Amino acid sequence: WCSPFPPVDARALINSNFNMQGTELQQARDLDMKYSQMRAPGIYGGIPFSLTFGVVSLLFVVAGNKPAYLISQKLLLGQLVFQVVGAVAYVVAVGLYIHFVITVNSTDVCKQRAILYAGRGYTWMNCDVTGGDAAVALFGLITAILYTVGTVLTFQTIRGVRRYLEERERRAAEKEATRGSAQSTPLQAETIFV
How far apart are CA 93 and CA 46, in angstroms? Predict the structure, then answer.
């Protein structure tokens, strides 16, 4: 088997030279630890939020796995409300997450950390919003769009089911009315002339 990529020495990656020693290395570790602890609520708050909405969404998918006219109206209304709440909640959550990231990145800890790393040539360690943060925000906005589309489709399904049920009731009433009128008239013998 031939790899198109050149071989990489794992020891070079693990034992990378950080150009820091002694108190400077300890200061970098301390600042990294503080920075990570400041960012933790955003991560540990976002994960349960996303998992909860994902699990409830899957429950609605499983519960709705039959023809629309057989699904409970209450379930469809619950799904509609959940999707509206989900779309709004994801937009709000993305805004709060970006605000949180910007707030953490504007602290003295982040600025000291960036200065310390920049002094050794590590300019990528800065206090800007990173691509990972932008990806999280983009994922959240895409999810909000999907919930919005789901809201529209569920609303159309509810309208279609209501029309179907009304039509079914109307036909049943007509059928009952024709059956009732046929039974209320007395039977008469037909006279046939030859």
Answer: 8
pTM given for the model: 0.74
Do residues 93 and 49 make contact, with C-beta atoms less than 8 angstroms apart?
yes
* Confidence grade of residue 22 (pLDDT, cut at 50, 70, 90): confident
Rounded CA gap, 109 and 114, in Å?
Answer: 9
Which of 91, 101, 100, 94 has the alpha carbon at shortest distance from 129?
101
Quote the CA–CA distance of 146 and 139 in Å, as a whole number: 11
Can you tell me the distance from the alpha carbon of 120 to that of 109, in angstroms, rounded to the nearest whole number?
17
Q: Please report, for residues 15, 79, 126, 140, the alpha-carbon distance to residue 123 in angstroms, rounded to integers and kept in the order given.
A: 20, 48, 6, 28
Query: Could you read off the pLDDT of 73-86 as tens digits, one per residue?
Result: 999 999 999 999 99
Scanning the structure block, which residue is given the tokens 């079914």?
Answer: 168
Q: Is residue 119 scored above 70 in pLDDT?
A: yes
